[in-house]
């Protein structure tokens, strides 16, 4: 059985790359959530006027990967203390947010925020937002790191340090380390 969780932690290319390396993750889809414009495009979302966040929807096997562990990886591999930004990406579309599908997910997400806050020097600003319509991103955004990211200077600057953190802090969860 596959469970799904939706999170936003800045650029979806970067968060997608991290979770594709996590044991127990079965699928990662980049997309948009939390906005008001139906069927938004990447250009519209990047403009910051739709209210959507760049996000990922993660399909995972709960027998291999607990939701709490997945969320701990999420909080450790982006900066949940930056309001409406991740590094040089600025705007509400790059906010740190979680979108619970039900009350049980919301409880897990709030507990993960508390765990992250215990380890953070600054306040966690991750928002818990209502689940809304999920819009998959355009095809060229899917599997971006594998298909195009290694020739993109932005991705080369941002993704390898995130993967390094995953592989160091969560070695038992990394496909690359286990291989």
UniProtKB/TrEMBL annotation:
GO molecular function, one term: peptide-methionine (S)-S-oxide reductase activity
InterPro entries assigned: Met_Sox_Rdtase_MsrA_dom (IPR002569), Met_Sox_Rdtase_MsrA_sf (IPR036509)
Keyword tags: Oxidoreductase
Record flagged with keyword RNA-binding: no
Organism taxonomic ancestry: Bacteria, Pseudomonadati, Pseudomonadota, Alphaproteobacteria, Sphingomonadales
Reported function: Has an important function as a repair enzyme for proteins that have been inactivated by oxidation. Catalyzes the reversible oxidation-reduction of methionine sulfoxide in proteins to methionine.
Record's protein name: Peptide methionine sulfoxide reductase MsrA
Lineage: superkingdom: Bacteria
NCBIfam families found in the cross-reference section: msrA
Enzyme Commission number(s) of this protein: 1.8.4.11
Oxidoreductase in keyword set: yes
Source organism: Sphingomonas liriopis
Record: active site: 11
């Amino acid at each position: 059985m596959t469970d799904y969780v939706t999170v936003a932690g800045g650029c979806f290319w970067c968060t997608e790359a991290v979770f594709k390396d996590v044991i127990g993750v079965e699928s990662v889809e980049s997309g948009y959530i939390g906005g008001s414009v139906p069927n938004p495009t990447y250009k519209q979302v990047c403009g910051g006027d739709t209210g959507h966040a760049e996000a990922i929807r993660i399909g995972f096997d709960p027998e291999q990967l607990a939701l709490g562990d997945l969320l701990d990886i999420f909080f450790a591999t982006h900066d949940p203390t930056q309001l409406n930004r991740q590094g040089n990406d600025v705007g509400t579309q790059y906010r740190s947010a979680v979108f619970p599908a039900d009350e049980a997910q919301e409880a897990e997400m709030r507990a993960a925020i508390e765990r992250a806050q215990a380890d953070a020097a600054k306040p966690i600003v991750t928002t818990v937002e209502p689940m809304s319509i999920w819009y998959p991103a355009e095809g060229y955004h899917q599997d971006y790191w594998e298909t195009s990211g290694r020739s993109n200077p932005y991705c080369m600057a941002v993704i390898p340090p995130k993967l390094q953190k995953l592989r160091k802090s969560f070695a038992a969860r990394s496909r690359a380390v286990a291989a």
